[in-house]
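Example (one chain per record):
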Amino acid sequence: MFSLKSLRSRAALSGATAALAAGLVATMAAPAGAAAQPAAQPDSSASVTAQMASVINAANKGNNAPERDAQIIGGTAVNIKNYPFMTQLWVGDGRGHGWFCSGSVVNSRKILTAAHCVKGKNFVKYGFVITGATRIADSHSLYGGKMYSISKQWYHPRYNSSTFANDIAVLTLRSRTAAKPAKVTTSTDTASYRPGKIGTSVGWGRTTSKNQNLSTYLRRGYLPVQANSVCQRFWGSAFKKGAMLCVGKAATGSDRGTVATCNGDSGGPFLVNGRIVGVTSWGVKDCVYKGAHPVFTKYSTYAKTVAAQLR
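Predicted structure:
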């Protein structure tokens, strides 16, 4: 268990946040690159389907298999129909490692996610996105979802992997998805960030601090917006006012009584009044350290920069 003092040191903070930053890390076969598909159609060729099955099967082996009955820490199960813009992001590195993150469809070809889900990874060659599925994909089925390959990846040019500053990214699909996009907030929005506002976090992330397993089914959690000073007291200078968003009640030190995002939720949305106002970014190791609050990227700060990527 980390002490509060050690958590506030930059070196320890980097280690503590690495767990949330990476999403699910697993062993997988190196997937082949995916070819472009016709507009308005998901990927369905035999080679692409084989790639998908290889990646997902390896990522869900053994201790990395999703939990069958648990919930996102402190959250509840929901149907993709309630959040049709939610996406599963899968990517390998061609050398036997892979990662999982969440994301949001924000127009027919664009997926909003976190920079830490994208930097250092080659989504164009080794990654894919799944839309339209409540259940997380496995090697047997997409469970009603559709798979898309990636033509372009972008992350904020000033993203810092040590401090998680500017943690925002956009993936461009090779073909259009029919999934209903989420609305994003504007650069002038202040009302959504008032302390006490209740927001919603959605994703397939870990459901417990006791293992690394993803959730089989999509989950949501309700979390209040906190004043910047709340996270500054706990995280010290690691919390960057204006660039980051402090969310959630202080964790209790265990799963019981804690509502928090966790590994695998990275890149997913934080919604207030139906609009994305934050992107899941980082937090404490195992997600329930007493007194900790999850930290999100504050979308309004980056709205104009991201808008240029959405055209």
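Caption: Residues 1-41, 44-48, 61-74 have pLDDT under 50 and may be disordered.
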